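Take our chain:
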Amino acid sequence: MTERRWIIMFIQGRCYKCGGFLAIDGSEDASVCPFCGKPFIVEKAVKYFQKSEPNNISVEKAPDDHDDSDFIVERSILIRYNGYTKKDVRIPDGITVIGENAFQGMNNIESVYIPEGVEIISEGAFSGCKNLQAIHIPETLETIDIDAFSGCVKLRNMTFPDSIKNIESSAFTGCTSLEAVNIPPKVELLPWRIFEGCTSLKYIIIPARVKTIEDYAFAECTSLEEIRFECIHSDDGDTAGVFRIGMNAFRNCKALGSIIIPDTVRFIGNQAFRGCSGLKKLLIPQSIKAVYPMAFADCTGLEQITFEGDTELYKGSNPYKYEKNSATFHNCPKLLDITYSKLQPNYWAFPAYFAAQEPVNIENGRCRHCGGEFKGIFDKVCSVCKTPKDY
């Protein structure tokens, strides 16, 4: 009797503020949307769902060995799942595409079996499934779309087949229990926010075909201890190796103790490693042409850095965007061991070095800011940083 009451209480609705699909407790007058965080009226959300349901759809039944009533299927596309109380779900055979938001917000689901034949998991398909813990991925899958598993806070492990070619933006954003995941070898791009906020992720291998790690890809992965690149050297092949590390790509990965940056990398973006307080030593390979503002700011444990080449360090043209001090190594108080051929022209990039050298520079009659020599008879100006003599 208790189970029957539970089934009746939950009805399907849709948030009329953000469009998210909801499983609603029918005994309540109002609730809060788990996607946008805004309150909604239950009756209004139910009517909005009914109004937005697709019309004139030719529904095909799932195979006979499944409970057809739980699945809405059009041709080979799973449009919606309506099993509000089932914990373990087996998607029927014959499906090639799991449609947009098909399981969105289904908090009752704990495990999902996706059969062979499925090629695409569409945008938001499992987003917000807060109790989803395990999922079987078939060998036929090729694409995981935007936000496909975002907010699945209990998902612990993901094992992907080699068939996957594309994993899109924010696919696993906010999967806070995700500890282990393999990136398939055919993937060439780690897009924007793909694993942002995966606070339990500890280890990641970047396949040789990956060319770009986009903005915020691993930002706030606070437990990430090791990043291993399959391609370290440019002579591994013209098509191999990471070319660019994007803005905020590894921001606040505080557990990261060390990283070997491949000599295939050409650019490190704004604030890419900001807040990686566990880093102690760093080698910037000769291949890197530019490091952008605040790239290693707030790496408070960083003690030693070696530049193999004449990498350009950018200050940034917008002081409001990069704060008052846009130094590459802003707030790195332990960074005193620096090997860099252009240290004087880029003195501003190393605040700790600048502070330690200031008394020595003054004693030697040089510019206290960068150690450059003064020019001029009366109004002396530093030949390097152009600052007037101020002591």
